[in-house]
């Protein structure tokens, strides 16, 4: 009877260890899955947002990356479409976008994720609209980048950016090689 009890305890202890190991692996898998999805949403979504602000085109694609509550409250996007943007006097033909994700965390069982990113647009290529040549400078205004704390929410199995709080402002130096002048 003693040998049978030891055998049962041996098998039970190994099954418990196997279940714990499987649980850790499943948690790690879903954490990696969420992190990869969020990374794509951040890089593609924030670049698309900058593109819409600079060129005022293809705003419909933002719905893939941003929650409707964010889109209705974003002042930068609002300015791009109500005529108050500093880029309204220019035809932007190209820009260089740089996003660095400093911190990203998403628990596998949670529907919210937080991250910290640094967004920059080191160079913008464009020309003044012919009707505004007398009023606007020939130099395209610098992009106001910065460090942002971003909140994402999972809606219907898809991650969407729902909040974006700027913590540091980074202005690109006009006519420089892409170095920032922090403020």
Question: What's this, in brief?
Answer:
With 183 residues, the chain is α+β, with helices and mostly antiparallel strands. The chain has a five-stranded antiparallel sheet with strand order 1-2-3-4-5. A hairpin with a 7-residue loop joins strand 4 and strand 5.
Overview of the molecule:
Helix content is 37%, strand content 34%. The chain is built from three helices and five strands, in the order αααβββββ. It has helices spanning 2-55, 68-73, 75-82, and strands at 90-105, 112-128, 144-155, 158-172, 180-182. A five-stranded antiparallel sheet has the order 1-2-3-4-5. A hairpin with a 2-residue loop joins strand 3 and strand 4. Helix 1 runs parallel beside helix 3 (75-82). It is elongated.
């Amino acid at each position: 009877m003693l040998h049978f009890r030891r055998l049962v305890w041996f098998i039970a202890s190994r099954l418990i260890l196997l279940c714990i190991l499987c649980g850790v692996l499943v948690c790690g898998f879903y954490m990696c899955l969420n992190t990869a999805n969020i990374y794509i949403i951040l890089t593609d979504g924030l670049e698309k947002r900058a593109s819409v602000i600079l060129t005022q085109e293809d705003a419909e694609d933002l719905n893939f990356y941003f929650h409707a509550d964010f889109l209705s409250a974003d002042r930068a996007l609002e300015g791009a479409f109500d005529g108050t943007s500093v880029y309204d006097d220019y035809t932007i033909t190209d820009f260089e976008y740089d996003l660095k994700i400093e911190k990203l965390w998403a628990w596998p069982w949670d529907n919210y994720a937080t991250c910290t990113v640094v967004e920059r647009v080191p160079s913008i290529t464009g020309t003044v609209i012919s009707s505004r040549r007398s009023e606007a400078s020939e130099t395209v205004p610098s992009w106001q980048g910065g460090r942002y704390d971003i909140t994402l929410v999972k809606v219907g199995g898809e991650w969407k950016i729902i909040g974006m709080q700027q913590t540091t402002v980074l202005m690109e130096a006009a006519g420089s090689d892409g170095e920032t002048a922090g403020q």
